[in-house]
Each structure stands twice: as C-alpha cells, then as structure tokens.
Amino acid sequence: MDKNILQTFSLSRNFGELKAVDNLDLSVPEGSIYGFLGPNGAGKTTTIRMLLGLVHPSNGQVTWFGQPLVNDPIGLLKRVGSLIEMPSYYPHLTGFENLEVIRRLSGGKKNDIARVLHLVGLEQDANRVVRQYSLGMCQRLGLAIALLNQPEVLVLDEPINSLDPAGIHEMRELFQHLQEEGVTLFISSHLLSEIDQVATMIGIIRKGKLIFQGTPSELRAQYPRRLSIGTDRPEDVSIWLKGQGYPILQMNNHHIDIPIRSEDESAKMNKKLSIAGFPIFETRYESISLEGIFLQVTSRENQSGE
Question: What integer pLDDT is reported at residue 302 of this predicted model?
Fold first, then answer.
C-alpha cells in the first residue's frame, strides 16, 4: 500500500470569515481503509464534498490516481463511488428494481446488479420492497448503488451513523470484505470505536486542521498505555513514583495510574515496587482505546487554544 490513490495539498475552504477546512494534506494509500475522524463541525463533510468536486476549494488541490481533479473531473470521478447521505429510493420498488433504475441511467451491465448484491449481502432481500428494509439494509443498498460502476475507491460520509449494534457489526464486516476485494475505502465517522476496528490509516481533523495522520499503531505509540496500581499507601507510592520520573495520570481511592510503554516495562515496575517494600494488592496494565486517544488529542488542542 505504498501508492497514494488520493492526495490533497494545502486544501482549504472558507465560508466568509470561517475557515471550514484549513491547509489539509491528506494521503490515502491504495488498498487502505482510511478512517477520517473528527467531532461534528470539524470540516469532514466539507472536505468530502471537495474531494468529490461538489464544492470548489478556496485554495489547494485534490488529486485522484496521481492526477489533479480539476484536469479531468468526470473521468477521474468515474472511478470513485460515494455515499454521502442516505440516498432516496423508490419505496414501492424492490431493492433489485431500484438498482435496475440506476443501472439503466448509468449505462451499466445487466450482471452488475447480481455482483453488487452479492458484495453487500443483499441477495436474499433483493426482491423485497424497500419500504420493508431496515436502516442497515438501506445503507447496504446505498453501498450497492455506489458499487455499480465498479469503483476503485469508495468515499463514505458517516455510513454507520444511526445503525444499531448489529447493523454496525454487519457494516464493519462489509468494509473489510470490500477491502479484500481490492476496493480502497475513505470513511468519515465520529464513531471512533468502530473505526478503530477496521481502519488501516487514520486522519484526525479538528476545526478544519489535520492534527494527526498515520496508522493506528503510530497513533497509539504517541500516547502511552497506563498501569493502574492498587495500594493501601497511595500517597507514599505516588511520591515514590514521581521520584522515579513517572507522572501521575490519575489517583482515585487506593489506585494510582501512571503511563507505561509496554507490558515488559509494567513487569519491571511491579518488581521495583516490591523491592521498595510497598504493599501492592493489584496492578493492571491497560491499553488505551482509539476513542480515549481521540479525546486526549482534541483536549490537547482545546488547551492550546486551537
């Protein structure tokens, strides 16, 4: 996944005095699932609309497949499928019939419908009228429409929003299946725990600015895991830990949390505490979730006044 299928260079969009997107440099590797994260109002949807040529940038450039979007928007975007909002369907028609309408309008092949129904797992429900579909099934039908022209990339804006846990699980499996089929996915979301489970690359945007871009492991490496130490002498242990150079992340009742880089370092700390003679009744090594890191990142940005 060394080749970037999508890139932006200093991409910006102003709405009057508001900088909705501010000098964004995205790099989306071919074959990746790129999770584009940010709180509501961060600039995610504006960015996506610029990627798809629906909004013109105030400054900067979008390139698809190594070519500037402005040079050949129709030709380049033919290779890109998208699902920005819940599409409108004909509720009295079946899923198959809705796809057939789109296929005829787009000039697709007849066997494309069977292909996309199989991809999104709607084969058994293809002949049900859409008004009987669940929200998750409607999302799958939207993805099927986006896949009709065999795109190399799917751009999805909040595709798992409003789904129940079962629907979210199904969509996550579908994303991984599509990646295995060779489709690159660019997924915007604020449901961080779900992106954590599928993303191979992550970009975090806040107030229009990209504040992180890299792999999930690279993100976690910047934010240490924690060791929770249970002791009957929390004040004494806290003073000793500070003397050893460990900042106290949290101290509640008889538990002290400190940052730790690895399980090996955690084991060494257990030994040091024992040698120092402290009564320790529990140590718990905890890895931090992507959601926890996201909150730390955005909290840090808030503190810096960004």
Answer: 47
